[in-house]
């Protein structure tokens, strides 16, 4: 055979031989790293399991945890709102107002549940006198003014009887000039 026909087979053989040589080199490297890849896969699996466990615990503590009722919900209002107890009437009083008018008032204290119906209301009667006797008739005329004075009276009574007062109502509220 002629040298020209042998040359392409040698070139092809040489090329494939060089590829084969490099493939064998890679195969040996893969065999050495094959054990490393198995260890790497086990490590990745262990990390994945750990992350999943942490996610489950986190979900249990946040998403699945029983939530307190929303601030505006009926359950929150019922839980936060004290239950009314006995209603205790104060003594009927006729007071001189600052501008010479008179006020006849009967105040009833709405107490919290557990408050004794025999609550000593002497200080409460004095609070009514202190609240209304120095006001002019105009400061008590109209619903808005009367509610403002009522809220101020509730504040005074809450200081005298801590955690026992819910509200006050007026059974009688008559002014005369």
Question: What are the salient characteristics of this protein?
Answer:
single chain; 177 residues; alpha+beta; Tetrahydropterin Synthase, Chain A; four-stranded antiparallel β-sheet; 54% helix
Tell me what the structure shows.
- This protein is α+β, with helices and mostly antiparallel strands and 177 residues long.
- Helices cover 54% and strands 19% of the residues.
- Strands 1, 2, 3 and 4 form a four-stranded antiparallel sheet that branches.
- Helix 3 runs antiparallel to helix 4.
- About 11% of the residues have low confidence.
CATH fold-level label of the largest domain: Tetrahydropterin Synthase, Chain A
Relative strand content: 15-25%
Provide the low-confidence segments as ranges.
13-31
Q: Gap between N and C termini, in Å?
A: 142 Å
CATH level 1 class label of the largest domain = Alpha Beta
Pattern of helices and strands: HHEEEHHE
Largest sheet geometry: 4 strands, antiparallel
The CATH superfamily name of the largest domain is Band 7 domain
Strand element count: 4
Number of helices: 4
Global Rg: 45 Å
Estimate the global geometry from the Cα principal axes.
rod-shaped
Q: What is the residue-mean pLDDT, rounded to a whole number?
A: 80
Number of domains: 2
- State the CATH architecture of the largest domain: 2-Layer Sandwich
- The helicity comes to 40-55%
The assigned structural class equals alpha+beta
């Amino acid at each position: 055979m002629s040298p020209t026909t042998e040359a392409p087979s040698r070139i092809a053989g040489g090329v494939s031989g060089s590829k084969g040589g490099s493939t064998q080199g890679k195969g040996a490297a893969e065999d050495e790293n094959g054990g490393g890849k198995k260890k790497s896969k086990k490590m990745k699996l262990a990390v994945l399991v750990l992350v999943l466990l942490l996610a489950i615990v986190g979900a249990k503590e946040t998403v699945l945890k029983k939530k307190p009722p929303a601030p505006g919900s009926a359950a929150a209002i019922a839980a936060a709102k004290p239950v009314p107890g006995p209603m205790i009437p104060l003594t009927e009083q006729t007071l001189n107002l600052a501008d010479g008018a008179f006020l006849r008032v009967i105040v009833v204290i709405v107490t919290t549940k557990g408050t004794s119906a025999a609550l000593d209301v002497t200080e409460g009667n004095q609070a009514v006198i202190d609240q209304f006797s120095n006001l002019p008739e105009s400061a008590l005329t109209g619903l808005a003014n009367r509610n403002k004075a009522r809220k101020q009276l509730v504040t005074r009574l809450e200081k005298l009887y801590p955690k026992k007062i819910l509200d006050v109502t007026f059974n009688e509220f008559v002014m005369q000039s």
